[in-house]
Every structure is written in structure tokens, then in C-alpha cells.
Design brief:
Serine Threonine Protein Phosphatase 5, Tetratricopeptide repeat; 6 strands; elongated; 2 domains; 257 residues; two-stranded antiparallel ribbon; mainly alpha; Arc Repressor Mutant, subunit A
Length: 257
């Protein structure tokens, strides 16, 4: 190794599918060759952390990356570790990063699932987006960020992405319900419930959709299921706001008791 790493401003072969970095449900690199993925077990941990860091940081300087990933050693050692990781990445997935100008970034055309998830959420939450352009996220955008990683910055990003997805799903469900599309609204609400079973706002949306359709039984069943789960897991009851949605159903206050 001569300490130099490949610098590129674009993926080498323009007519191939764009390479993609996957961080949801585990690290992977999908190369420009269709069907070929660089297996996680052949990518050194330092290289995985480097690529993940760049996916979130945009175009960080080398010193910032070295300090974040190797903050427990001297600056010289951190820079040496960064150079080694870049060299190894160049052997495994040449051209994945643009290293020009003293900064690091995904090369033009390289995609990342975490950025695709953020783009989907931004589209859903933009009130100018036409309703017909709104969809549930693709199944490959459903997983948790880098399971098993415990770096502080990963924990923060994991929670941020989880909340981003949940808020977008609830926004999607509310917009679909308001537009008189209950089946799709229920699907969005259920997706939020599956992602976070103890999230009251997702269950509350689901109850509202059922009530708007006149499906009292489904509304009551949803409330009772959530109440039982919340009591079993946390020893808590649903909020008064949620209870008021259903307390008049099924005869007096029996539903909410």
C-alpha cells in the first residue's frame, strides 16, 4: 500500500446501474454490476464505518472524519487509519467515494438508502406534493440503521431516521384519510404501528380512520389492543386524548374502562 487512494468524480461506467450503499438492516454495497453485492463480511469494520459516516455527513473534511471515527488516538494515527481505510475501500469498491479537494463524499451517481428514505419522507411531508404522488416507502427502506452498531453517532442517526419515517407515515395516513382514501390510510397507519408498536399517535390515527368509515368494532378493538399492550409493557394507560375518541362507543364508558 503506498498511502494513496483512488480519487474520482464519477462512477467509471456511465451506462451501468448506479451503485448503492445500504445501511438499513445492515451494511452492504451494491455495485454497478447488476446482482453483485460486496458482502459485509469482506468489508473491514473501519471501511464500513467510513462509508456510513460519509453517507450522513454530506461532504466532510478528512480531519472531521478522522476525528469522529478515530477520536481515541492521536491526530497522526487517526489520519493514518483514514488513509488505510480509503485504500482498502478503493480495492473493494473503486470509485465509491470522491476524495478530491481534501473532503470526502459519495461519488456522483452513488446512491444511499438512508438518503432515499430521507427524500421519501421530505416528499410526503411537503404539502405541495400531489396526493397521487404519495406512496408508502419501499420495503428495502423499512429496516433499522446498522443493527448491532453502538457508536454514539450511529445511535443518534438511528433514532432520527426512525422518527423521520414514523412522522412521514402518520402524515401520509392523515392526508389519505382526509382525501377519502381509507384503505390506503389504514395501510400507512399500520406501517407506523408495525415500526413502533407502542406509539400512541399511530394507533390514534388508525382509530380515527376506522371511525371515519363507521367501523366502530375495528376502532374499539384497536384501542383495547393498544391499551392492553401499553399496560403490559409500561404499566401505563393511553392518554386522555386517545381515550376520548372511544369512550362514547359501545355503551357509555365501558370501552375505555
Amino acid at each position: 500500500m503506498d498511502g494513496r487512494e483512488r480519487t474520482t468524480s464519477a462512477w467509471p461506467v456511465a451506462d451501468r446501474p448506479a451503485p448503492r450503499v445500504g445501511l438499513l438492516d445492515g451494511f452492504r454495497i451494491e455495485t454497478a454490476c447488476p446482482g453483485r453485492t460486496v458482502r459485509r463480511d469482506v468489508v473491514p469494520p473501519a471501511v464500513q464505518r467510513l462509508v456510513a459516516c460519509v453517507c450522513f455527513a454530506g461532504r466532510p473534511g478528512r480531519s472531521a472524519v478522522a476525528g469522529q471515527l478515530w477520536g481515541d488516538v492521536s491526530e497522526d494515527q487517526a489520519q493514518a487509519s483514514l488513509r488505510s481505510a480509503l485504500w482498502r475501500l478503493g480495492r473493494l469498491a473503486p470509485g465509491l467515494l470522491d476524495t478530491a479537494g481534501g473532503a470526502l463524499a459519495l461519488a456522483p451517481g452513488v446512491r444511499a438508502d438512508v438518503r432515499e428514505l430521507a427524500d421519501w419522507a421530505a416528499t410526503v411531508r411537503d404539502p405541495r406534493t400531489p396526493l397521487d404522488d404519495l406512496t408508502l416507502p419501499r420495503p428495502d427502506l423499512d429496516g433499522d440503521l446498522l443493527p448491532g452498531w453502538h457508536d454514539d453517532w450511529v445511535l443518534i442517526e438511528r433514532e432520527r431516521l426512525r422518527q423521520l419515517r414514523l412522522y412521514a407515515l402518520e402524515t401520509l395516513g392523515a392526508r389519505l384519510a382526509a382525501a377519502g382514501r381509507p384503505a390506503e390510510a389504514v395501510e400507512a397507519a399500520l406501517a407506523a404501528v408495525r415500526s413502533e408498536p407502542l406509539r400512541e399517535s399511530a394507533h390514534r390515527l388508525l382509530v380515527r380512520v376506522h371511525l371515519a368509515e363507521g367501523d366502530v368494532a375495528a376502532a374499539v378493538r384497536t384501542y383495547r389492543h393498544f391499551r392492553t399492550m401499553l399496560r403490559d409493557e409500561l404499566g401505563l394507560d393511553p392518554s386522555d386524548r386517545f381515550t376520548r375518541l372511544v369512550q362514547h362507543l359501545g355503551g357509555g364508558g365501558r370501552v375505555a374502562s
